[in-house]
Amino acid sequence: MASRNDGDSYLFTSESVSMGHPDKVSDQISDAILDSLLKVDKNARCACETLCTTGLVVVSGEVSVHNDAGVLALNRVEETVRKTLRRIGYTDPAMRFDADSCAVVRTIHGQSADIAMGVDRDGAGDQGLMFGYACRETSQLMPLPIFLAHRLMERHALVRRKGIIKGLRPDAKSQVTVEYAGQLPQRIDTVVLSTQHTADWNGRARQAQLGRQVIRHIIEPVMPSKFWNARKVQIHVNPTGQFEIGGPHGDTGLTGRKIIVDTYGGSGCHGGGAFSGKDPTKVDRSACYMARYIAKNIVAARIADVCQVQLSYAIGIAEPVSIYVDTRGTERIGVDRIEPLVRQFFPMTPKGIIDHLQLRRPIFEKTAAHGHFGRPGFSWEKTDLAAKVARAAGL
Description:
Layout: E1 9-17, H1 22-38, E2 45-53, E3 56-64, H2 68-75, H3 77-88, E4 103-109, H4 113-120, E5 128-135, H5 144-162, E6 168-181, E7 184-197, H6 204-222, E8 234-237, H7 247-250, E9 253-254, H8 259-262, H9 283-300, E10 306-313, E11 322-326, H10 335-345, H11 350-357, H12 386-392
Parallel strand pairs: 3-4, 7-8
Antiparallel strand pairs: 1-6, 2-3, 2-9, 5-10, 6-7, 10-11
Helix pairs in contact: 1-2, 1-3, 5-6, 9-11, 9-12
């Protein structure tokens, strides 16, 4: 998000998608395969892409394993795919895409020896630029619009699985628009939520009933009272009129097509690289996690209220080519002092990132829906270095 003056008023919007959205189905399959390899071979190399459409899942990519258990996990790719689809909720043949009847095609080969040569020397697995972001809009130090959009999708999954609203299906999308004054959120202006459903909800009258239930059971429980005024907010539920046809039958899904949903909802910048299906030697993933970790600790240390970190790498080279920290004028110490603090406290080589954040674990399928950032339980969400950085900064 571009910097604004204190008096400026404007609207900013972020979206999220559910675990049953076709692109997120693909992300979760790719990360489930990655996790299945890391469970038995912590040094497995994986770049796994998934396509899903009506009655079909195609898994492709480059994978290298180093023991018989890894080979066995590779041979169980189809089983991993079907287990993932069942967990998401694709179990009804009426959706034209379900775990038991869909075809699974795999086209997987080994990692390029040219790439492996650089990675084996602890160099970066590719060139590129990666961003991390943190701000004080929420207690999780995330921008408010994307944070709320994700919570709506988490609530949708809970309501669907518990049957609180009958007839919901896995595919859904949310969108939250927040009014800002300068860099401070003032109120929630608009909420959009589209949810797939059974044919029982078709028709104008039934859609109106569904809308009331969605507002009551999904939207209102998530909205913070500080920013919520039910008389002023605009709410759109299934604005096309109905949403029976969805999931991979309604729209083909691909790994890596929701990179803004995965990160900060358009706040800050994005380097263009996707996450899912990539083992932690791929700095597209691991360096973005480190950049978030750095930014969050800088904000938690009260060095700044907003922090964006850019890291860049060259393939086969361990140290980052460049480091850039932007605090949007909210810093409490000299800007020239912040980058040296980052270099002092945070490891930024691929090996250093992997070791510090403990990334050679099967933790990645959990990241593949509802956002990679702003959720508890991930090592890059810790603020364990904030106190040390604050002391070094003299705060």
